[in-house]
Task: structure prediction
Amino acid sequence: MPKNCIRIAGLSEGEHGQEFEIRNKFFQKYKESEVKTGEFIVKIVVVLRGLDRKLTINIEGKITNLLCDYCAKKLNCVISTTSNFVIKENEEEIESTDEIIYVLPNQHHLDLSQLIFEMVNLSIPNKRTHSKSEQEKGECDKGMLQLMEKYATKTNKEIDPRWEVLNKLKVK
Ligand SMILES: [Zn+2]
Result:
């Protein structure tokens, strides 16, 4: 069985589980990937009930190349994501959707690389910062935090009335 592939034909009725690890090397072939490094456990379950085939992919792990929005240092971004699909046969190759994976009638296995790549990249959080506890432990760069606070207070500060007078003079 090729890497990151699962068997989808000749399965017996019931559940079929499989587990594999993906690491940095996996993302090298995806130049556009925002995730460059990390460690993940991918758990696959294929369920066969009569003619119905269902697939569940669960990915847990950490992305390690993202930078903290506060201090610009690397942080470990823990992710956990699960997707469910129905596997359907089609005479011709057609593109799968968010819910349905189309396979050919004689197809023996299914490569999950693209799905895993998408699931990991879609689970990047919008806000990337060291957690509160990490900040308290000093993981977040203090110097940068102080600098940011200084900027924040500067911009929020009311305009000094003396400057206001000067500004008025300039307008005239
Ligand atoms: Zn930080």
Observations:
- The longest strand covers residues 77-89.
